[in-house]
Write a structure and sequence with these properties.
The strands form 3 sheets. The chain has a 5-stranded parallel sheet with strand order 4-3-5-8-9, with helices on both faces. A two-stranded antiparallel sheet has the order 1-2. It has a two-stranded antiparallel ribbon with strand order 6-7. The chain is an alpha/beta fold. It is 43% helix and 14% strand. Helix 3 (54-62) packs parallel to helix 13 (248-271) and helix 7 packs antiparallel against helix 8.
Length: 272
Protein backbone atom coordinates (compact mmCIF):
# COMPACT_ATOMS: atom_id res chain seq x y z
CA UNK A 1 0.00 0.00 0.00
CA UNK A 2 1.27 3.47 -0.84
CA UNK A 3 2.35 5.49 2.17
CA UNK A 4 -0.69 7.75 2.33
CA UNK A 5 -1.56 9.52 5.54
CA UNK A 6 -4.58 8.27 7.43
CA UNK A 7 -6.44 11.52 6.78
CA UNK A 8 -6.02 11.07 3.02
CA UNK A 9 -7.69 7.66 3.11
CA UNK A 10 -10.44 8.84 5.45
CA UNK A 11 -11.30 12.20 3.94
CA UNK A 12 -13.93 14.04 5.94
CA UNK A 13 -13.85 11.43 8.72
CA UNK A 14 -13.12 12.45 12.31
CA UNK A 15 -9.96 10.93 13.77
CA UNK A 16 -9.61 10.24 17.47
CA UNK A 17 -7.38 8.70 20.12
CA UNK A 18 -8.15 6.74 23.28
CA UNK A 19 -6.43 7.36 26.59
CA UNK A 20 -2.68 7.77 26.21
CA UNK A 21 -2.44 5.66 23.06
CA UNK A 22 -0.31 7.12 20.27
CA UNK A 23 -2.51 5.51 17.62
CA UNK A 24 -5.09 7.47 15.71
CA UNK A 25 -8.39 5.75 14.98
CA UNK A 26 -11.40 6.25 12.81
CA UNK A 27 -14.10 8.22 14.61
CA UNK A 28 -16.45 9.30 15.80
CA UNK A 29 -15.93 7.65 19.18
CA UNK A 30 -19.00 5.94 20.61
CA UNK A 31 -20.66 6.80 23.88
CA UNK A 32 -18.74 4.43 26.15
CA UNK A 33 -21.63 4.51 28.64
CA UNK A 34 -24.10 3.13 26.05
CA UNK A 35 -24.08 -0.35 24.45
CA UNK A 36 -21.55 -0.65 21.62
CA UNK A 37 -19.46 -3.13 19.66
CA UNK A 38 -15.68 -2.78 19.41
CA UNK A 39 -14.05 -3.78 16.13
CA UNK A 40 -10.36 -4.66 16.38
CA UNK A 41 -8.55 -5.20 13.10
CA UNK A 42 -6.40 -4.00 10.27
CA UNK A 43 -6.97 -2.18 7.00
CA UNK A 44 -10.28 -3.92 6.25
CA UNK A 45 -11.74 -2.95 9.62
CA UNK A 46 -10.44 0.61 9.27
CA UNK A 47 -12.28 0.89 5.94
CA UNK A 48 -10.21 3.37 3.89
CA UNK A 49 -12.24 5.27 1.27
CA UNK A 50 -15.47 3.86 2.75
CA UNK A 51 -17.96 6.38 4.16
CA UNK A 52 -19.67 3.44 5.89
CA UNK A 53 -17.28 0.52 6.54
CA UNK A 54 -18.62 -2.81 7.72
CA UNK A 55 -18.11 -1.85 11.38
CA UNK A 56 -20.56 1.05 11.22
CA UNK A 57 -22.97 -1.00 9.08
CA UNK A 58 -23.07 -3.82 11.64
CA UNK A 59 -23.63 -1.38 14.50
CA UNK A 60 -26.42 0.40 12.63
CA UNK A 61 -28.09 -2.93 11.80
CA UNK A 62 -28.06 -3.96 15.47
CA UNK A 63 -28.91 -0.53 16.86
CA UNK A 64 -25.63 -0.21 18.76
CA UNK A 65 -22.64 2.11 18.77
CA UNK A 66 -19.37 1.23 17.04
CA UNK A 67 -15.81 1.60 18.28
CA UNK A 68 -13.58 1.26 15.22
CA UNK A 69 -10.10 0.15 16.30
CA UNK A 70 -8.87 -0.66 12.81
CA UNK A 71 -5.19 0.13 12.12
CA UNK A 72 -3.70 0.10 8.63
CA UNK A 73 -1.60 -3.04 8.06
CA UNK A 74 -1.86 -4.01 11.73
CA UNK A 75 -0.64 -7.26 13.20
CA UNK A 76 -1.42 -8.62 16.65
CA UNK A 77 1.67 -6.99 18.17
CA UNK A 78 0.36 -3.42 17.97
CA UNK A 79 -2.71 -4.30 20.05
CA UNK A 80 -0.85 -6.45 22.54
CA UNK A 81 1.51 -3.56 23.25
CA UNK A 82 -1.23 -0.93 23.70
CA UNK A 83 -3.15 -1.35 26.98
CA UNK A 84 -5.04 1.90 26.39
CA UNK A 85 -6.70 0.48 23.28
CA UNK A 86 -7.60 -2.77 25.02
CA UNK A 87 -9.01 -0.79 27.94
CA UNK A 88 -11.35 1.05 25.56
CA UNK A 89 -12.34 -2.22 23.84
CA UNK A 90 -13.16 -3.83 27.18
CA UNK A 91 -15.98 -1.33 27.73
CA UNK A 92 -17.83 -2.89 24.77
CA UNK A 93 -20.66 -5.41 24.90
CA UNK A 94 -19.04 -7.49 22.15
CA UNK A 95 -15.74 -7.42 20.27
CA UNK A 96 -15.33 -8.35 16.60
CA UNK A 97 -11.70 -9.34 16.06
CA UNK A 98 -10.42 -9.50 12.48
CA UNK A 99 -7.83 -12.18 11.75
CA UNK A 100 -4.72 -10.08 11.22
CA UNK A 101 -1.86 -11.21 9.00
CA UNK A 102 0.63 -13.53 10.75
CA UNK A 103 3.33 -11.94 8.56
CA UNK A 104 3.02 -8.68 10.51
CA UNK A 105 4.40 -9.94 13.81
CA UNK A 106 7.83 -10.24 15.35
CA UNK A 107 9.03 -13.84 15.42
CA UNK A 108 12.15 -16.01 15.54
CA UNK A 109 13.21 -14.90 12.03
CA UNK A 110 12.52 -11.15 11.94
CA UNK A 111 11.33 -8.24 14.07
CA UNK A 112 8.67 -5.70 13.07
CA UNK A 113 8.04 -2.11 14.11
CA UNK A 114 5.98 -2.04 17.34
CA UNK A 115 3.29 0.26 15.89
CA UNK A 116 3.65 -0.19 12.14
CA UNK A 117 3.66 -3.95 12.06
CA UNK A 118 4.14 -4.31 8.30
CA UNK A 119 7.62 -2.75 8.57
CA UNK A 120 10.66 -4.99 9.07
CA UNK A 121 13.17 -3.44 11.47
CA UNK A 122 15.49 -6.46 11.82
CA UNK A 123 16.14 -9.70 9.98
CA UNK A 124 17.41 -12.04 12.68
CA UNK A 125 20.48 -14.29 12.40
CA UNK A 126 18.23 -17.37 12.37
CA UNK A 127 16.98 -16.39 8.91
CA UNK A 128 20.28 -15.04 7.61
CA UNK A 129 22.00 -18.32 8.51
CA UNK A 130 19.40 -20.39 6.67
CA UNK A 131 19.42 -18.11 3.62
CA UNK A 132 22.84 -16.48 3.13
CA UNK A 133 21.77 -15.50 -0.40
CA UNK A 134 18.94 -13.34 0.95
CA UNK A 135 19.69 -9.67 0.22
CA UNK A 136 18.00 -7.65 2.96
CA UNK A 137 19.49 -4.29 2.06
CA UNK A 138 16.34 -3.13 0.28
CA UNK A 139 13.72 -5.04 2.29
CA UNK A 140 11.55 -2.77 4.42
CA UNK A 141 8.18 -4.54 4.48
CA UNK A 142 7.05 -7.99 5.59
CA UNK A 143 5.40 -8.86 2.29
CA UNK A 144 8.60 -8.14 0.37
CA UNK A 145 10.62 -10.26 2.80
CA UNK A 146 8.31 -13.27 2.58
CA UNK A 147 8.15 -13.12 -1.21
CA UNK A 148 11.96 -13.09 -1.41
CA UNK A 149 12.25 -16.02 1.01
CA UNK A 150 9.69 -18.01 -1.00
CA UNK A 151 11.56 -17.29 -4.24
CA UNK A 152 14.89 -18.45 -2.80
CA UNK A 153 13.90 -21.57 -0.88
CA UNK A 154 10.65 -23.51 -0.56
CA UNK A 155 11.91 -25.38 2.58
CA UNK A 156 12.89 -22.10 4.25
CA UNK A 157 9.51 -20.61 3.40
CA UNK A 158 7.75 -23.64 4.85
CA UNK A 159 9.75 -23.31 8.07
CA UNK A 160 8.89 -19.61 8.22
CA UNK A 161 5.22 -20.33 7.56
CA UNK A 162 5.08 -22.80 10.45
CA UNK A 163 6.81 -20.34 12.77
CA UNK A 164 4.39 -17.55 11.85
CA UNK A 165 1.34 -19.77 12.31
CA UNK A 166 2.48 -20.98 15.74
CA UNK A 167 3.26 -17.41 16.87
CA UNK A 168 -0.09 -16.21 15.54
CA UNK A 169 -2.10 -18.90 17.36
CA UNK A 170 -0.25 -18.25 20.63
CA UNK A 171 -0.48 -14.46 20.39
CA UNK A 172 -4.12 -14.49 19.39
CA UNK A 173 -4.84 -16.53 22.50
CA UNK A 174 -2.93 -13.98 24.58
CA UNK A 175 -4.95 -11.13 23.10
CA UNK A 176 -8.28 -12.85 23.70
CA UNK A 177 -7.22 -13.53 27.30
CA UNK A 178 -6.81 -9.78 27.77
CA UNK A 179 -10.29 -9.04 26.46
CA UNK A 180 -12.97 -9.14 29.12
CA UNK A 181 -16.05 -9.35 26.86
CA UNK A 182 -17.24 -11.92 24.26
CA UNK A 183 -14.99 -12.07 21.19
CA UNK A 184 -16.24 -12.89 17.71
CA UNK A 185 -13.58 -13.75 15.13
CA UNK A 186 -13.88 -12.42 11.60
CA UNK A 187 -11.89 -13.97 8.76
CA UNK A 188 -12.17 -12.31 5.34
CA UNK A 189 -11.00 -14.55 2.51
CA UNK A 190 -9.12 -12.56 -0.14
CA UNK A 191 -8.31 -14.68 -3.19
CA UNK A 192 -5.91 -12.02 -4.42
CA UNK A 193 -3.65 -12.39 -1.38
CA UNK A 194 -2.13 -15.84 -1.83
CA UNK A 195 0.46 -15.27 0.88
CA UNK A 196 -2.21 -14.54 3.50
CA UNK A 197 -4.14 -17.62 2.36
CA UNK A 198 -1.08 -19.79 2.99
CA UNK A 199 -0.60 -18.34 6.46
CA UNK A 200 -4.22 -18.51 7.62
CA UNK A 201 -5.68 -21.74 6.30
CA UNK A 202 -8.55 -23.89 7.52
CA UNK A 203 -6.38 -25.70 10.06
CA UNK A 204 -5.18 -22.39 11.52
CA UNK A 205 -8.74 -21.12 11.93
CA UNK A 206 -9.79 -24.41 13.53
CA UNK A 207 -6.92 -24.08 16.03
CA UNK A 208 -8.36 -20.80 17.37
CA UNK A 209 -12.07 -21.47 16.91
CA UNK A 210 -12.62 -22.29 20.59
CA UNK A 211 -11.24 -18.91 21.64
CA UNK A 212 -14.29 -17.09 20.30
CA UNK A 213 -18.04 -16.98 20.80
CA UNK A 214 -18.42 -17.24 17.04
CA UNK A 215 -16.34 -17.34 13.88
CA UNK A 216 -17.51 -15.54 10.75
CA UNK A 217 -15.75 -16.47 7.51
CA UNK A 218 -16.62 -14.23 4.59
CA UNK A 219 -15.54 -14.72 1.00
CA UNK A 220 -16.71 -11.69 -0.99
CA UNK A 221 -18.81 -12.61 -4.00
CA UNK A 222 -17.63 -12.27 -7.59
CA UNK A 223 -19.88 -9.23 -7.99
CA UNK A 224 -18.35 -7.58 -4.91
CA UNK A 225 -14.81 -8.33 -6.09
CA UNK A 226 -15.63 -6.92 -9.51
CA UNK A 227 -17.16 -3.69 -8.24
CA UNK A 228 -13.77 -2.02 -7.84
CA UNK A 229 -13.67 1.55 -6.59
CA UNK A 230 -16.87 2.81 -8.23
CA UNK A 231 -18.76 3.20 -4.94
CA UNK A 232 -15.80 4.39 -2.88
CA UNK A 233 -15.03 7.93 -1.80
CA UNK A 234 -11.63 8.20 -3.48
CA UNK A 235 -9.70 10.79 -5.45
CA UNK A 236 -8.56 9.70 -8.95
CA UNK A 237 -4.89 9.94 -7.95
CA UNK A 238 -5.46 7.37 -5.18
CA UNK A 239 -7.65 4.95 -7.16
CA UNK A 240 -4.78 2.47 -7.58
CA UNK A 241 -4.39 2.29 -3.79
CA UNK A 242 -8.13 1.91 -3.19
CA UNK A 243 -8.36 -0.83 -5.83
CA UNK A 244 -6.35 -3.16 -3.58
CA UNK A 245 -8.93 -2.85 -0.77
CA UNK A 246 -12.36 -4.28 -0.10
CA UNK A 247 -15.03 -2.78 -2.31
CA UNK A 248 -18.14 -1.16 -0.87
CA UNK A 249 -20.19 -4.20 -1.90
CA UNK A 250 -17.73 -6.43 -0.03
CA UNK A 251 -18.17 -4.29 3.11
CA UNK A 252 -21.94 -4.78 2.77
CA UNK A 253 -21.50 -8.56 2.55
CA UNK A 254 -19.12 -8.68 5.51
CA UNK A 255 -21.52 -6.59 7.62
CA UNK A 256 -24.44 -8.84 6.71
CA UNK A 257 -22.64 -11.99 7.80
CA UNK A 258 -21.31 -10.51 11.05
CA UNK A 259 -24.75 -9.17 11.97
CA UNK A 260 -26.22 -12.61 11.34
CA UNK A 261 -23.89 -14.10 13.98
CA UNK A 262 -24.23 -11.23 16.45
CA UNK A 263 -28.02 -10.75 16.31
CA UNK A 264 -28.87 -13.71 18.61
CA UNK A 265 -26.18 -12.57 21.09
CA UNK A 266 -27.43 -8.98 21.26
CA UNK A 267 -31.08 -10.04 21.48
CA UNK A 268 -30.24 -12.36 24.38
CA UNK A 269 -28.45 -9.50 26.17
CA UNK A 270 -31.43 -7.18 25.76
CA UNK A 271 -33.85 -9.84 26.98
CA UNK A 272 -31.87 -10.30 30.18
Amino acid sequence: MSELRLGQMLQGVELCTYGLSRQQFRGPPPDLAAPFIAFIGGTETLGPYQPHPFASRVAAELGLGALNLGIKNAGLDVFLSDPEVLRAANHADHIVLETLSPANMSNAFYRVHPRRNDRVVEVRPELRTRLPALDTSDIHFTGHLLRDVAALSAPAMEELRMELQLCWIERLGTLVDRLAVPVHLLHIVDRRDRLRARLIDRETINAVRDLAQSVTIVQPSADARGEGTTAMSVLPAEAHVAAAMLSTAAHVEVARDIARHLTPQTQKARAS
